[in-house]
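hey
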């Protein structure tokens, strides 16, 4: 069962928005320090990969995926 068959486009758009927000937060501030402890946010490459996945799901659910057309010529031999 594919993930697109069990979620709505609204849920997919919400997930995409969360990943875009997370990506922005990491880009703006990868790590921060409070008192004497340093904290690091999530790995940017993981966030970017998941954002691309959710973008593809949104495109698929919205019908925005690419269209492939093939032409078949039938010949009488």
């Amino acid at each position: 069962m594919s993930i697109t068959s069990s979620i709505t486009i609204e849920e997919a758009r919400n997930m995409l928005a969360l990943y875009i927000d997370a990506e922005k937060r990491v880009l703006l501030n990868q790590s921060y320090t409070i008192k004497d402890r340093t904290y690091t946010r999530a790995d940017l490459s993981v966030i970017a990969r998941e954002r691309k996945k959710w973008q593809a799901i949104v495109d698929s659910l919205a019908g925005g995926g690419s269209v492939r057309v093939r032409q078949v010529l039938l010949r009488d031999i």
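The two ends are 43 Å apart (CA to CA). The mean pLDDT is 84.
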